[in-house]
Design goal:
Helices cover 19% and strands 32% of the residues. It has four helices and eleven strands; from the N terminus they run ββαβαββαβαβββββ. The strands form two sheets. Strands 1, 3, 4, 5, 6, 7, 9, 10 and 11 form a nine-stranded mixed β-sheet that branches. Strands 2-8 form a two-stranded antiparallel ribbon. Strand 3, helix 2 and strand 4 form a beta-alpha-beta unit. The radius of gyration is 15 Å and the shape is globular. The protein starts with a strand and ends in a 6-residue tail after the last strand. The structure holds NADP nicotinamide-adenine-dinucleotide phosphate. NADP nicotinamide-adenine-dinucleotide phosphate binds next to strand 1, strand 2, strand 3, helix 2 and helix 4. The site of NADP nicotinamide-adenine-dinucleotide phosphate has 28 residues, from strand 1, strand 2, strand 3, helix 2 and helix 4.
């Protein structure tokens, strides 16, 4: 299982239940990476999407106590979520947020695609600082790019101590 996330220089990921930045190149990367795959998210992240609708051309798995909809697979607990995820190939599953779901799922994720944005988005929700965790190693660091006025780079972290569920 993988995760994909965009972080600012403080590992901030969101503010007021929205993203910190609009970076079309990063959105394109997110879309092409997750297309036709399984995306796993929390209820707040689903509610943050345009009109609160799931992502097209992906299997949307949503952890929620109160969302009811036919176009998503709903998990009412982490144990239900793990049962659902087990139906798919591990490489097909992407955890896409938000903060609480990333935090709970982190031990079980083997690779994290982190877009690092060189800015302070004044976030109110954060990702774990992977550079402070012994079991996460950088295995890819792309060139710095600029898009929509933001400097950013694509990186990949590997979890060397993945837990099974
Ligand atoms: N930068 C990025 O790459 C990125 C990616 C994704 C999201 N984000 C940002 O992250 C923020 C949202 O993060 P968040 O931590 O507030 O929310 P979240 O993790 O998306 O969702 C939290 C929700 O998940 C459900 N949930 C959590 N634990 C549960 C459990 N044990 N059983 C059943 N349901 C459970 C609940 O939904 P219900 O309330 O529906 O019950 C809860 O309110 C937003 O600002 C968003 O823009 C950033």
């Amino acid at each position: 299982m993988k995760a994909i996330v965009a972080v600012d220089k403080n590992w901030g990921i969101g503010k007021n239940n929205d993203l910190l930045f609009s970076i079309p190149e990063d959105m394109k990367f997110f879309r092409s990476t997750t297309l036709n795959k399984v995306v796993v998210m929390g209820g707040n992240t689903l509610r943050s999407f345009p009109n609160g609708n799931p992502l097209k051309n992906r299997i949307n798995v949503v952890l929620s106590t109160r969302i009811n909809r036919e176009d998503c697979i709903i998990a009412r607990s982490y144990s239900e979520l793990f049962e659902i995820i087990k139906r798919y190939e591990s490489d097909e599953v992407f955890v896409i947020g938000g903060a609480s779901v990333y935090r709970e799922m982190l031990p079980f994720i083997d690779e994290i695609l982190v877009t690092k944005v060189e800015a302070d988005g004044k976030a109110d929700v954060f990702f774990e600082n992977l550079d402070k965790l012994d079991n996460f190693k950088v295995i890819f660091e792309g060139e710095e790019q600029i898009n929509n006025g933001y400097k950013f780079r694509f990186t990949t972290y590997k979890n060397t101590a993945v837990k099974s569920f």
